[in-house]
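Record type: monomer structure entry
Structure origin: computed from sequence
Chain ID: A
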Amino acid sequence: MWKSAETLLAATLLAGGLAVAGVALAEQPGGKPAAKAEKVGTDKARQAVNVAAPAAATASAAAKTIALGRPALPEEIAAWNIDVRADGEGLPPGKGSVKQGEELFLQNCAQCHGEFGEGAGRWPVLAGGRGTLKSERPEKTIGSFWPYASTVYDYVHRAMPFGSNLSLSPDQTYAIVAYLLNLNDLVAEDYVLSKDNFPKVDLPNEANFYDDDRETSEKAFWKKNPCMKDCSGEVHVTARAQILNVTPDGDPPKGNLE
């Protein structure tokens, strides 16, 4: 059966080749059309014999660049590249005083965070809380918990005021951060914060932050055959929602909650 198929294929190719040759010879006396016909016939013969031709064409098409969009403009990249590192890398030029920051804070921030960073309602507290991190009700503020002053600048500039983020200029952001540092007794009332002196500001809890070390500290738990039953031993409740301040105070809600 295979031999018959091979014989049929060879006969077909031979017939095609003879037909192409016949066309070329027939039109040769006419001059240029014969050469054109010969070229067309040769191409068809090659396509019939060379089965790899479609794959080569596909590879050639894939190598072409897909023209979607356009290169980002420098100003567009700059609008996204606003992160600030702990060493001050990424800070824009500018400065702002504690006094200027107080006025800006009252205009843009106090309605949520209180006039002195004490928090309004359930909005975050920004000042105070020093020495409470080991207590049952820790106050995680800039002065008690946050690691770097750059974290304050980055967050204020990127996300505040709520509902109108990125509306503060660098000078205004410097001023608000200076005021927040003063509320936490970290700088004096006449302090002027700038790009130059920013890296010199240290927050009290910086030493308690460290790089992610799970690759080494938790490597012992990376097992090919993990434990799937009775792995943690006896479970003990160490804290409750009321102590963690995630359960609202007051009377329980009335009515059917389902």
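Annotation 1: Residues 2-27 form the longest helix (26 residues).
Annotation 2: DSSP finds nine helices and two strands in the chain.
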